[in-house]
Predict the structure.
Amino acid sequence: MLVPPILRFAFYGRVSTEDNQDPAASRAWQLRRARALIEPKGGSITAEFFDVDKSRSIPWARRPYASALIEQLKNPARDFDAVVVGEPHRAFYGNQYSLTFPLFEHFNVPLWVPEVGGPIDPANEAHDMIMGVFGGLSKGERNRIKIRVRSAMAAITATEGRYLGGRPPYGYELFDTGPHPNPAKAADGKRLRRLVPHPVYSLVVKWIFAQFLQGRGLFDIAEELTREGVPSPSAADPARNRHREQRAWSKSAVRVIITNPRYTGRQVWNKQRKDEVLLDVNDVSLGHVSRLRWNERDQWVWSEQQAHEPLVSVEDFERTQAVLASRGRGPATHKPHRTRRPYAFRGRLHCGFCNAGCKGAGTTTRRTTDAGSPRNTPWRTRSSIPRWSIYARPRSSATSTPGSSPRSLRRGYRPRSRR
C-alpha cells in the first residue's frame, strides 16, 4: 500500500499500575519512541490517547482512550492522518491486533509501529506475522509475571510466614518489624509488618471459639455480643466499613471468625484466586473479566512455622470446623447462592429506619442487614424497627418516600415475637 506524505499523527499508549509502573515515566518513553520514528520523516503528534491503569488484556473497545481513538477514526474531520504507537506490547495483547487493524484499514488510517520501521502494510505477510508475534509475546509476558508473583508469594508464605498485606483479621493489629528486605522497596520507605493480638478484640475471638465449642450457635453468640455492646468487626474499623451495618453482630461475622485459619498463628495464602471469564459468550471480542473465586482448602498455602501469636490452638480450630460441618453446614467453604427466580424488587427496597437493603423471602419482604438473612440481626436492633419503615427506592431516583412500596409488601413485613 502506497502511503502518501503524512504529517499529523495521533499517539496511542497504555500503562498498567498493577505492577507499580510510573504512568508519567511510561508515557514519556513511549512518546519518545513514537517521535523518534515519525519526526525524521516530517511527522508531528497532534493528538494523544493514553490509557492509565488498564491491563493489556482489556480489549480496545473497553479501554477509554483506545475506544475514543476508534471513534475518531470514523470522523472524517479528525485532526490526524495516521496513528503511531510507541510500544506494540503495550498496545496489543493476544489477538487484539487482528481484531483492531481492519478498522484502520477500512478508514484508510495508517498505523505506524517502531518495530516495522514505519506504517504497517496490510498486504505484507511479514508485517502481519510480526504483529501477531508481538501479541503472543505480550500475552506470554503477562502470564510469566503472574506465575512469578504467585510462586514468590507462595514461597514467602510457606518459608517465612511473612505478612503479605490486606486488612488484619478481627482480633489482631499490625506491628512494625523493620525495613523491607527488598532494597528497592526499603528505599521507598516500605516496612515489614506482622500481626499482634489486639488487647481487647483478641479476647473476644477467644471467647467466640470457646462458646462455639461449648455448643452455642452462631446467632446465639452474635446476639449476646450485640447485647453486651461488644464492637463488631465493622465497628472496629469504621473508616473502611462505611457501607456496612456497624451496630450489631451477625451470624456471618461470627462464622468468618471461626473459619479463619490465621487465628492458629500460621500465615495462610491462596484462599482465593482470580479467574478470567468471558464478558459476553456471544461476543468474545469483548474479552475477559476477573472474578474472585474461593479455592478448596487443600489448595491453601500454610506457613511452615508460626508467624504470629495464636489466639486458638490448631486442635481447637480443627474441632471447630468439625462441629460446624456436623451441624449440616458442610465444609467451611464459601459458595455463592444463586436463585433461579430473581426477586423483582432486588436492590430497590430499603429500610426507612437504617437504610439497609431488604430481601424477598417467599411472598413477604423482611428487613435484613448485609448478612442477607433477617435472623442475622439480633433482637436488640430488630425489635426497634417499625413495621411501616419499609419503602421502595426506584433505581432512577436517589430519594423516595416511606410507604411508596406496594401494599402487599408493606403488609408482608411483621416483626417476629420474641420466643
About this structure: The longest strand covers residues 44-52. The chain has 13 helices and 15 strands. Residues 330-336, 363-391, 393-419 have pLDDT under 50 and may be disordered. The first helix runs from residue 23 to 38.
